[in-house]
Structure prediction request, 222 residues.
Amino acid sequence: GQQLNQSPQSMFIQEGEDVSMNCTSSSIFNTWLWYKQDPGEGPVLLIALYKAGELTSNGRLTAQFGITRKDSFLNISASIPSDVGIYFCATMDSNYQLIWGAGTKLIIKP
Amino acid sequence: NAGVTQTPKFQVLKTGQSMTLQCAQDMNHEYMSWYRQDPGMGLRLIHYSVGAGITDQGEVPNGYNVSRSTTEDFPLRLLSAAPSQTSVYFCASSYSRGGKLFFGSGTQLSVL
Prediction:
């Protein structure tokens, strides 16, 4: 099936650092979604993107829908301890089913 | 509102046993789905339903059954558990297919 390549797989950062992660595909999509999963919980939608080139912010989070419609990135500014978790990108196929990346695990060094 | 409620939170089974994972939502969502999450593999769709009485297979349906007799409930049945079914299972719902998904907090299943 279709796959999304999400990188990096994991990140060790210091509190206060900025974070950047991305997601790429070999196919064109019309929707990009970013979810966060806290430990022991289900994923929660952070940002949804519906238009090529769209840049959307949600607090310290900013996500962009790539111009080629084959990629998206998520930035987190000035990371804090509650940012730890797994960040998933996802997109939607022609049947409105979600296709998921494998996730980026964010760990904050003490 | 409780949102999407999954039970149990943890379960250990022996190979060959059967069990049902429960999922209920109180948001009057038409669309409900089951995913499994394995390390390094993201989320994979098992089964989904677009309304009461309608179910369909996802990416990895083998070994699992579902039914949707009411809008609120969407149980997932394992008829004969296998070690390959050790995973974390998530139920999710949305107002409609393609809408914003709301997830339950998951069931961690181990099959020995």
About this structure: Chain B touches chain A through 20 residues (CB under 8 Å). Chain B has a mean pLDDT of 95.
